[in-house]
């Protein structure tokens, strides 16, 4: 979906940071609904597909409730490479063990891959964007937007895009977009109570989708 030069540029921009692999996103090319996550994890990098690990199973369950399948939505993320940290541990025999767990993307990594997300939104022009988690919400609407205050609501706002590739500042888009924030599906693994909340958000999303007159 991306021009080759854009992928090369994005890979060059992310190279200084501790990330690996590249996942482009998946789904229909002319989607009514776009889901935006945070960044791929280890499973996604191995298979080259977004949301296929534990968080992906949870996402499928939320979607199923309102009759959505993966074929109905385009799924992408703010950063397309896996951000990781290096953790050194010593096991009980004194051997050094190096682990590289996932971590949240930094602001610089988000800027590095911003041309990709900007390109996808502009070219796919989804009727509605569902942000999964605070990172995607803030990337599109700004740091003052809090997931705890906006989840489950339909917002109509300009979204932040990079002004140009040599610039590290975002500016608001000319046109408004429909944005529906909810929590990241992986959040239920450390806060079980959110499961009910996300089911309610998806129920509301189902109602919103029934009302929207899709233009594409
Ligand atoms: N979390 C994300 O944000 N994206 C994935 O693809 C997997 C987990």
Order of helices and strands: HEEHHEEEEHHEHHEEHH
How many structural domains can be distinguished in the coordinates? 1
List low-pLDDT spans. none
Count all strands and give the number: 9
Shape: globular
User: Could you tell me the mean pLDDT?
Assistant: 95
Bound molecules: uracil
Q: What key phrases describe this protein's structure?
A:
single chain, alpha/beta, Uracil-DNA Glycosylase, subunit E, five-stranded mixed β-sheet, two-stranded antiparallel ribbon, 22% strand, binds uracil, Uracil-DNA glycosylase
Topology:
Layout: H1 4-14, E1 19-20, E2 33-37, H2 42-47, H3 54-65, E3 73-77, E4 82-83, E5 87-90, E6 96-99, H4 107-112, H5 114-124, E7 128-132, H6 134-141, H7 147-150, E8 155-162, E9 170-182, H8 187-190, H9 194-211
Parallel strand pairs: 2-3, 2-7, 7-9
Antiparallel strand pairs: 1-4, 5-6, 8-9
The structure holds uracil (URA).
